[in-house]
Write a structure and sequence with these properties.
By secondary structure, the protein is α/β, with parallel strands linked by helices. It contains 11 helices and 14 strands. It has helices at 13-16, 21-41, 57-60, 68-73, 79-89, 112-130, 149-157, 225-242, 277-285, 293-303, 313-327, and strands at 3-7, 137-138, 163-166, 169-172, 175-178, 181-184, 189-194, 202-204, 210-215, 218-223, 249-254, 259-261, 269-272, 311-312. The strands form 4 sheets. It has a 6-stranded mixed sheet with strand order 1-3-6-7-11-13, with helices on both faces. It is globular, with a radius of gyration of 22 Å. The N and C termini lie far apart (46 Å). 29% of the residues are buried.
């Protein structure tokens, strides 16, 4: 599952410590799956199982880690320290804030494939929590993301080593700028613009400002997707250059359910429509390359200028407590 590093302008755990959470996520994901599968194979009723808390003995030693990433990012202080303190001293109560991964299976699956699907669905919801809250802060998650099929397919089917920025809002020259999708693999960065409408709609690139969309007998104009894509690539390449990150960037326009016809496509842009999407997606799913140092530098450079809108959990609790007392 690709890791959802940044979603819109939501607060993210990865902002606290990008050197820690990717490896913690992978370890947690694999450990919970193996534990759940073993219990299922031994006939344990998973619909009535006791939740497993995120912290393990191995994770309790995290404060002693020293890796090349530590040399790059340093030991993050401030909010990260507060989160670490809470996580190691809350007596296993992380789930109170919805930040612990405790799969809740409402029925016993009959096959391991069915079990796997239930597990990944639970993990997807857990990822959304990590991408919209920390131990100290919380953003208002739009429920539409729960039903976002593209976001779900990216997070559930791509390798763990991929870092996903989903429509991130960045502060560029002190102004908020919303980008499309940025997918950072261990070896390259994909800047992706999605062009989708009705099933089997056709998009024809026939102008600089607008393209034509045809669906049955209907015809309309849509904004040329290359405008936003080119702007996004320039912003990302500028960020990399400012941070001295040497990392290749690819520009892509994708449509899972439509056709794109653009004979004049630039040489540095890839068009992926319903005729080629499955093959393209299958090819990037096959990657077995582990996370790379330069990949983390690229992701961190984007996170550094990400805009974050969140409220303090303490402040939110005080408001709720005040409302409760007023009602009484």
């Amino acid at each position: 599952m690709a890791q959802l590093v940044k979603l819109l302008d939501y607060v993210s755990r990865y902002e606290s410590d990008l050197s820690r959470y990717p490896t913690q996520y992978i370890r947690l994901k694999n450990a919970q799956w193996e534990r759940m599968k073993t219990q299922w194979e031994h006939g344990v009723d998973l619909s009535d199982r006791t939740p497993i808390h995120e912290e393990t003995e191995e994770q309790a030693e995290e404060g002693k880690w020293y890796t090349p990433l530590t040399r790059l990012f340093g030991s993050r202080k401030g909010r990260a320290d507060e989160e670490e303190l809470l996580e190691t001293n809350n007596d296993g109560q992380d789930d109170v804030n919805g930040l612990d991964f405790n799969p809740h299976i409402i029925y016993n699956p009959e096959t391991v494939m069915e079990l796997r699907k239930l597990y990944l669905d639970q993990l997807f919801h857990f990822q959304l929590k990590w991408a919209s809250s920390t131990m100290m802060e919380k953003s208002n998650l739009d429920a539409a993301f729960m039903r976002d099929s593209l976001l779900r397919s990216f997070t559930q089917q791509l390798p763990d080593s991929y870092l996903l920025f989903y429509y991130p809002i960045l502060k560029v020259k002190k102004a908020p700028v919303e980008l499309d999708i940025i997918l950072i693999t261990p070896i390259e960065c994909f800047c992706i613009t999605v062009l989708e409408a009705e099933n089997a709609a056709a998009f024809i690139g026939d102008g600089d400002r607008f393209w034509t969309k045809k669906y049955g007998e209907m015809e309309s104009r849509v904004l040329n997707p290359l405008i936003g894509l080119t702007r996004m690539e320039k912003i990302v390449s500028g960020i990399f250059a400012a941070k001295e990150v040497d990392f290749p960037i690819k520009k892509m326009v994708i449509s899972r359910n439509g056709y794109i016809d653009y004979p004049g496509v630039p040489f540095d842009t890839h068009i992926i429509d319903r005729r080629t999407y499955e093959d393209w997606f299958a090819s990037i799913r096959k990657s077995t390359v582990p996370m790379k140092f330069n990949q983390f530098k690229a992701a961190q450079s984007i996170l550094d200028i990400g805009q974050t809108t969140a409220v303090s959990r303490l402040f939110e609790e005080q408001i709720e407590q005040g409302q409760h007392e007023t009602n009484e």
